[in-house]
Design brief:
The complex is a heterodimer. Chain A is an alpha/beta fold. Helix content of chain A is 34%, strand content 12%. Chain A is globular. Chain B has one domain: Arc Repressor Mutant, subunit A (Orthogonal Bundle). The chains are: A alpha/beta, B alpha+beta.
Chain lengths: 373, 88
C-alpha cells in the first residue's frame, strides 16, 4: 500500500520572511497574534544580526520581507533594516499601527526603499477603536498617518480586524479605506491563537454577522474592482474545510521572532516538543533545508490517514498545526476546522459562544505573574 | 487603451528572481508569477512606451501577426489593470 502514498517533492525555497522585530507595542489589542509570553526589549536581536538574516533570506529565495511586531516602528534601527532589505533586493512591507510614525520618519522610510505600508485600524468608530486598541486618541492619529503615508508616495493597505464587537460597522470600514486612498483593503476575521484565543468568547461573530460580512465584502469587491483590491480572511470556525495555514507548514514563509527564533509560523512557539533554532547560531538556509522542526509537518508524509488519503491534501496541507494543538492537544491531528476531523464538533461548540453575552476583554500586555489564564 | 501609456502602480515591481530563474511581479502582500509572453510584455512597460509601441516592439521580435499580438497585449494589460498592478 505504501507505494500508493504521495511522495513529497524536494523542498522549494521560501517566498517570504515575516520579521517580528519586537513585541513592544503601544496598543493592547485583545486579538493580538503574538504569544501570551511576550519578549522584552533586552532579548531582541541586534541590528547586525537582522541585516545578516535579510541577506541570507534573499540568497535563499525569499522575495518579500514583512516587518512586523509588536510595533516594528518601536525599533530605533527600522530605517537601517529597510535599507538592508532594499540592498538585499527584497520587497519590504511595514505592518504597523502607525501611531509612532510622522511625516519625517515616513519620508525617510520611503527614501530608504520601503515598498508598502499596511496600517491597522481597530474600527471605523473612533471611540470603539480606541477602546479595542487600549490607546487614547489612536484612531484620530491613524487617520492623519494614513494621509502622511500617501503623501510620502507609499502605497497603503488599510487593515481591519473584524469580530462580533465591530462587524456591524464593516460598511463604514470599507468606506474609510476608500476615503483614505488605500490601494488595498484587508478585512480579516480574527484567527484564534494566543491573545485572541484567550478572548475568543468576546470576539466570535455569529453566523448572521459572518454572512452579512461575506455579502458586504462581495459587493465592495464589485464596486471597487480595478481600483482597490480587497483581501478577505474568513473565520475557519464556520468552515467545512481548514485554511491552508501559512500556505502549508514550512512551504512558503519563515517567521523570525524578536529574540531570533526561526519558526514556520508565528504561533509555532506554542507547540511543545520543539527546540527551535536561533538565527544567532544557525543560517537561514540550514534552518529551511534541515531543521527537524521545519521538516516535522512539511509536505504530506506526516499526515494522519484521513488527511493523507484526502484529495485536498495539497490544497489545505492539513490546515493549521497550532490550531490542532490548541484545541485537541495533538499538533499532528487533523485540524478541527475540517468537517472530516473527529474533533470538528469543537468548532460548533465554540461558535455557540457568539450567542452568549460577551465576557470582558483581556488586553495584551507584557505579562506579570498576576495575569494567568 | 489605444494610445495609452501603461505604467506600474507604486508598490508593484517586475523583478527577475535569480534563485528560481523566473520573473515575478512583487506586489503589496502578494506576488504574481508570470508566464513567458507576460514577461516580454511587462519588460516593455516603462511608463514611456505607449500600447502601440509595445505591440510594435513585440511584432519586430516575434513572427506573429500584429493583430494577434495586439489582442494578446490588450487582454493582458487589462487583466493587470484589474489586479491593480498597472495603470493606463
Amino acid at each position: 500500500m505504501n507505494a500508493l502514498l504521495p511522495i513529497d517533492p524536494p523542498v522549494e525555497p521560501p517566498l517570504a520572511l515575516l520579521a517580528e522585530l519586537t513585541h513592544r507595542c503601544p496598543l493592547q489589542c485583545p486579538y493580538c497574534a503574538n504569544p501570551l509570553e511576550l519578549e522584552r526589549a533586552a532579548a531582541e536581536l541586534d541590528t547586525a544580526t537582522w541585516l545578516r538574516v535579510l541577506h541570507e533570506a534573499s540568497a535563499l529565495g525569499v522575495l518579500q520581507v514583512h516587518f512586523s511586531g509588536g510595533e516594528p516602528t518601536a525599533r530605533k534601527d527600522l530605517l537601517q533594516l529597510v535599507q538592508g532589505a532594499a540592498a538585499a533586493g527584497l520587497y519590504s512591507n511595514l505592518i504597523t499601527s502607525g501611531v509612532m510614525l510622522d511625516a519625517a520618519s515616513l519620508g525617510a522610510l520611503a527614501d530608504a526603499g520601503l515598498d508598502h505600508v499596511q496600517l491597522s485600524f481597530q474600527d471605523a468608530d473612533a471611540a470603539q477603536a480606541d477602546r479595542m486598541g487600549g490607546y487614547r486618541d489612536g484612531h484620530r492619529r491613524k487617520l492623519v498617518i494614513a494621509g502622511l503615508i500617501r503623501a510620502a508616495g507609499l502605497p497603503l493597505t488599510a487593515n481591519f480586524v473584524v469580530h462580533r464587537q465591530n462587524l456591524e460597522r464593516l460598511p463604514e470600514m470599507l468606506r474609510l479605506g476608500e476615503e483614505l486612498g488605500a490601494s488595498r483593503i484587508e478585512v480579516a476575521h480574527v484567527q484564534y491563537y494566543g491573545w485572541s484565543l484567550l478572548n475568543r468568547a468576546a470576539l466570535m461573530p455569529s453566523r448572521a454577522q459572518l454572512e452579512g460580512a461575506n455579502a458586504e465584502v462581495a459587493a465592495a469587491r464589485d464596486r471597487l474592482r480595478g481600483r482597490i483590491t480587497i483581501d478577505y480572511v474568513v473565520p475557519d470556525y464556520y468552515a467545512a474545510r481548514p485554511k491552508a495555514c501559512m500556505g502549508g507548514w514550512a512551504r512558503r514563509i519563515i517567521n523570525i521572532t524578536p529574540a531570533g527564533l526561526a519558526l514556520p509560523c508565528h504561533a509555532a512557539e506554542t507547540l511543545p516538543g520543539f527546540a527551535w533554532p536561533n538565527v544567532r547560531d544557525v543560517s537561514l538556509g540550514d534552518v529551511w533545508r534541515a531543521d527537524p522542526g521545519f521538516m516535522r509537518y512539511r509536505g504530506t508524509a506526516w499526515m494522519p490517514d484521513a488527511c493523507r488519503s484526502c484529495d485536498q491534501r495539497e490544497i489545505d496541507w492539513g490546515g493549521c498545526r497550532c490550531q490542532a494543538f490548541a484545541l485537541t492537544g495533538d499538533a499532528g491531528a487533523t485540524d478541527p476546522a475540517c468537517a472530516l476531523s473527529p474533533d470538528h464538533h469543537m468548532m460548533a461548540d465554540a461558535v455557540l459562544e457568539a450567542d452568549r453575552p460577551a465576557p470582558d476583554l483581556v488586553y495584551r500586555r507584557i505579562r506579570t505573574a498576576a495575569l494567568v489564564r | 487603451m489605444t494610445e495609452a501609456v501603461p505604467a506600474f502602480n507604486r508598490g508593484f515591481r517586475l523583478r527577475h528572481d535569480q534563485v528560481r530563474d523566473s520573473w515575478v511581479v512583487l506586489a503589496p502582500e502578494r506576488l504574481f508569477l508570470l508566464d513567458g509572453p507576460a514577461v516580454e510584455v511587462l519588460k516593455l512597460v516603462d511608463g514611456a512606451r505607449s500600447v502601440p509601441a509595445i505591440v510594435d516592439a513585440l511584432a519586430a521580435q516575434y513572427d506573429a501577426p500584429r493583430d494577434l499580438i495586439a489582442a494578446d497585449v490588450h487582454a493582458m494589460l487589462q487583466d493587470l489593470v484589474e489586479k491593480g498592478a498597472i495603470r493606463l
